[in-house]
UniProtKB/TrEMBL annotation, chain A:
The keyword Transmembrane applies. GO terms for molecular function: transmembrane transporter activity. It is a multi-pass membrane protein. One of its GO terms (cellular component) is plasma membrane. PANTHER family: ABC TRANSPORTER PERMEASE PROTEIN MJ0876-RELATED, FERRIC ENTEROBACTIN TRANSPORT SYSTEM PERMEASE PROTEIN. Pfam families: FecCD (PF01032). It is found in: Cell membrane. Keywords: Cell membrane, Membrane, Transmembrane, Transmembrane helix, Transport. The chain crosses the membrane at residues 63-84, 91-110, 116-135, 147-170, 190-214, 235-260, 272-290, 302-321. It comes from the Bacteria. This is Iron ABC transporter permease. The keyword Transport applies.
From TrEMBL, chain B:
Keywords: Signal. It comes from Chitinilyticum piscinae. PANTHER family: MOLYBDATE-BINDING PROTEIN MOLA (PTHR30535:SF34), VITAMIN B12-BINDING PROTEIN (PTHR30535). Transmembrane segments: none annotated. PROSITE patterns: FE_B12_PBP. The lineage of its organism: Bacteria, Pseudomonadati, Pseudomonadota, Betaproteobacteria, Neisseriales. This is Cobalamin-binding protein. InterPro entries: ABC_Transporter_SBP, ABC_transptr_periplasmic_BD, Vit_B12_bind_prot. GO terms for biological process: cellular response to iron ion.
Length: 327, 292
């Protein structure tokens, strides 16, 4: 069992992960698909301009986008697992991302530009959030399975719609649509995802002590006088917002929202006051490292970042899991 | 006795009005017809163009989506898209020849078509020089040898002229953009690289491993191409996003060229026009190179 939570331990762990993240960010700025001489960054003239372009206008925004999206996905996954009290929950299970993909695919099919695609994805996500709310909002039962079932059913419906759109798409557009579904950090916005990540994390941390109580079971939460119903919808909205932001800016990047919170729970224990910020930092770190690999492994050929993450992350996670079981 | 044998031989060799014809297709499979094809189904837009180029366009009874050139091709009944077609509709058109596309049509459906027992010609042009060969073979199957020979000859002459004129000129470094999002290009083995060599241009991603690799913007900035060229067809301005990268020589000298739609990307008879348009764009970029 992990040690008791002390401020010292919190600081050590979060500081350590932050340091790793900082190093990973420097790495991400330093290497890429081209081997431009970094020393020329201060030179004037064309060559220096090329190096500055690559580092500050290409690698830096992409690095920040990876950090923001990774953090958002891990935060969403962490909250979702608390909300549903189900270890299989990931940010995508309740249909938020499904709605976003239907919106984005529809926009791509109609030939919309990047900005409109993002907007359509956000609208799609918002629509599913509202629908889940309307259909399952009145559930006061103790098991509260209605939220999960409504979300899963809606996700399946969105999956069918996405398949329909993909099957109707002409060949040229299909490539871009599949690419969006695989997740893509190039040209992903970073400004508002990063800001939103900070805001959502602060709100989640504010709820964390109460959520810890809820994690012990609904009965005990009730007996301690918590308004569980309102609290659950608050958590749902936080997690859906994080998921919608992540998917809207970078497409469907899988795996990070499911595995990172789990792995950290194995390492750090259940206390959300530590787990939430650690998951945000960890998600950012994992997605950033995966993106560096995706950009450089076969450079200049680019790999989908979600694929790289799954191929390397899942074996690592399974190894960790089996070690825990043996101990 | 000898006279009778000679007479028989003459009789056998004399072409009847409807002579049986056997031709090897682009994969080397033998395709036999008892008489020239008069009900043809075309399973690729460029195959439709091939057939019109040899004067067999009026005999196409079914074609796949995007068979839009020449304009008369738009009126042909549709049988689905090249990457998934309606076998039932194809069968009901009672074709006597199906011209398929080896690398574009799905293998599973090609196998089904082959089992239907209708003669199938599989076209698989991979190099610029393969196109006249396909034209000549389709000419034999449709009894249009004379027109096919003329079309093939014109194509070869024009390609040769382009090669003689441009291939040895000052090399121009070119980034050819296949697609914007995801950003895709071609490597040195793809036929557009052959067209680039014909024009005296160098593909900056010639050494990439994949035939049509996905690359990132950084790699293009680092490659410092002297011209960025794409083919039209995408929505909006497919090359507009490059203008922000002032360190790319192509951007500094205003050498972003969008070629007319389809002519360079279809493996059909207009490919030589596409190559000519490519050479013209490369030549502009060559003139814009700073003189040393």
């Amino acid at each position: 069992m992990p040690a008791h939570l002390t401020p010292r331990r919190c600081l050590l762990i979060l500081g350590g992960v932050s340091l790793l993240l900082l190093l990973a960010m420097l790495l991400s700025l330093a290497i890429g698909s081209s081997s431009l001489p970094l020393g020329e960054v201060l030179h004037s003239g064309e060559a220096g301009q090329a190096v500055r372009d690559v580092i500050f206008n290409l690698r830096l925004p992409r690095t920040l986008a990876a950090v923001a999206v990774g953090g958002l996905l891990a935060l969403a996954g962490c909250l979702q697992q608390v909300l549903l009290r189900n270890p299989l929950a990931d940010p995508y299970v309740l249909g938020t991302s499904g709605g976003a993909s239907v919106g984005a695919l529809l926009a791509l099919l109609l030939g919309a530009g990047l900005l409109l695609v993002n907007l359509a994805a956000a609208l799609g996500a918002l629509a599913t959030i509202v629908i889940v709310f309307l259909l399952a909002g009145q559930d006061h039962s103790a098991t509260q399975s209605r939220l999960l079932l409504t979300g899963v059913a809606l996700a399946a419906f969105c999956g069918a719609l996405s398949s329909l759109l993909l099957s109707m798409a002409p060949d040229g557009l299909l490539r871009g649509m599949v690419f969006w579904l695989l997740g893509d950090l190039s040209a992903a916005p970073w400004q508002w995802p990063l800001l939103a990540l900070l805001g959502l994390l602060l709100m989640a941390l504010w709820l964390a002590p109460v959520l810890n109580v809820m994690g012990m079971g609904l009965q005990s939460a009730h007996s301690l006088g918590l308004n569980v119903h309102t609290l659950r919808w608050g958590v749902y909205l936080l997690s859906a917002a994080a998921c919608a932001l992540a998917v809207t800016s970078a497409g469907m990047i899988g795996f990070v929202g499911l595995i990172v919170p789990h792995a950290l729970r194995l390492l750090l224990g259940q206390d959300l006051r530590l787990l939430l910020p650690a998951a945000v930092l960890g998600g950012a770190l994992v997605l950033l490292l995966a993106d560096v690999l995706a950009r450089t492994l076969l450079a200049p050929q680019q790999l989908p970042v979600g694929v790289v993450m799954g191929l390397i992350g899942v074996p690592v996670f399974l190894w960790q899991l089996s070690r825990r079981a043996a101990a | 006795m000898q006279v009778v044998a000679t007479a028989c031989l003459v009789l056998l060799l004399t072409p009847l009005r409807a002579a049986p014809v056997t031709v090897a297709d682009d994969l080397g499979r033998l395709v036999s017809l008892s008489e020239p094809a008069r009900r043809i189904v075309s399973l690729a837009p460029h195959v439709t163009e091939d057939l019109f180029a040899i004067g067999a366009g009026e005999w196409i009874v079914g074609a796949v989506d995007y068979s839009d050139y020449p304009p008369a091709a738009r009126r042909i009944a549709r049988v689905g898209g090249y990457s998934g077609f309606d076998l039932e509709r194809i069968r009901s058109l009672r074709p006597d020849l199906i011209v398929a596309w080896g690398t574009g049509n799905p293998d599973r459906q090609l196998q089904q078509i082959l089992r239907m027992g209708i003669p199938v010609y599989i076209s698989q042009a991979e190099r610029l020089e393969d196109i006249p060969v396909t034209l000549l073979r389709l000419g034999q199957l449709t009894g249009q040898q004379a027109v096919a020979q003329k079309a093939a000859g014109a194509y070869r002459t024009q390609l040769q002229q382009l090669h003689q004129r441009y291939a040895q000129r000052t090399p121009v470094r070119v980034f050819y953009q296949v697609w914007q999002r995801p950003l895709m290009t071609i490597n040195g083995r793809q036929y557009i690289s052959d067209a680039l060599r014909t024009c005296g241009a160098v593909n900056v991603f010639a050494d990439a491993r994949a035939l049509v690799p996905t690359v990132d913007v950084e790699a293009v900035v680092a490659a410092r191409p002297q011209a960025i060229i794409s083919s039209g067809g995408e929505e909006g301005d497919p090359l507009g996003s490059w203008r922000q990268w002032r360190s790319i020589p192509a951007v500094q000298h205003g050498q972003l060229h969008v070629l007319p739609k389809d002519i360079l990307v279809r493996m059909g008879p207009r490919l030589v026009e596409g190559t000519a348009a490519l050479c013209a764009a490369v030549e502009q970029a060559r003139q814009a190179l700073p003189s040393r």
